[in-house]
Amino acid sequence: MPPPSYCRACGAPIRWTITEKRKRLAVDLEPDPNGNTAVSRDGRGVWLSRRPTEELPVAPFEKLHTPHVATCQPPEPEPTRCLGLVSLGDDRRTRGGAR
User: Fold this and answer.
1) Could you tell me if residue 94 is inside a domain?
2) I need a surface site. Which of 25, 43, 64, 69 has the fewest CB within 10 A?
3) Residue 78 falls within a domain, yes or no?
4) Is the dihedral of CA 22, 24, 25, 27 positive or negative?
């Protein structure tokens, strides 16, 4: 089994899946009984995901996961300090040098 990937924004372990419409979807690595995405592997070992419905509920070979976009919590960016810059907001001169 391939090792998990990690989210670039928050660093959490994720699993990339292929949806029914052949799009890539990142899901949380661990199954979640409250999740809304059914995940399974096909015969080649590719992770597949789909949205369960009343007509096609979760199969015994599928596990529920949560899409990672719903749980991603990137860290707050550190404030940047720009030293040596002057704010010109109030001191801007108009054309011709007049204030």
Assistant:
1) no
2) 43
3) no
4) positive
| Tens digit of each residue's pLDDT (9 = 90 or more) over 1-53 | 678 899 999 999 999 999 999 999 999 999 999 999 999 999 999 999 999 99
Which structural domain, as residue segments, surrounds residue 66?
1-73
**43-61 core/surface letters (b: 16 or more CB in 10 A; e: else):** eeeebebbeeeeeeebeee
pLDDT in tens, 71-85: 999 888 777 776 666
* 82, part of any domain: no
* pTM, two decimal places: 0.72
Domain count for the chain, please give it: 1
d(CA 97, CA 82): 28
